[in-house]
Design a protein that fits this description.
HIT family, subunit A; binds guanosine-5'-monophosphate
């Protein structure tokens, strides 16, 4: 699996393209989606170069894996959606509908998010 260093999230990570940042630490960057599908729609991405969840689960270090999962929880708290609830999902590859080839977790909330798959 070859990582495309010119994908849009790689550019955001390098600061070449702006984003509405929510949170950043050693392992993750979180920002608001440019085209929100719910009242709250955030993206949490690892700082490492991983194409998708498959790539990440096979190559990422334990620290990176823990950092990403913890990051999602931190971002949910920062967005104040933890109590009321939210949905986090990952699209993987063509059948999964993934458009940007850098692993990202979506966080949807701020309202009822509806059925799981449409
Ligand atoms: P995917 O379909 O790959 O799971 O989701 C990609 C997401 O990235 C989409 O929800 C899309 O709106 C978002 N997106 C694409 N380009 C940009 C961008 O330049 N900035 C931000 N903040 N989000 C983007």
């Amino acid at each position: 699996m070859t990582y495309d260093k010119n994908n849009i999230f790689a550019k955001i990570l390098r600061g070449e393209i702006p984003c509405k940042k929510i949170y950043e630490d050693e392992y993750v960057l979180a920002f608001h989606d440019i085209n929100p599908q719910k009242k709250i729609h955030a993206l949490v991405i690892p700082k490492g170069e991983y194409v998708n969840l498959d790539d990440f689960s096979s190559k990422a270090t334990e620290k990176e894996i823990a950092g990403l999962i913890k990051g999602i929880g931190i971002v949910a708290k920062k967005l104040d959606v933890s109590q009321a609830g939210y949905r986090s999902l990952v699209n993987v590859g063509e059948n999964g509908g993934q458009e940007v080839p850098h692993l990202h977790f979506h966080i949807f909330g701020g309202e009822k998010v509806g059925k799981m798959v449409t």
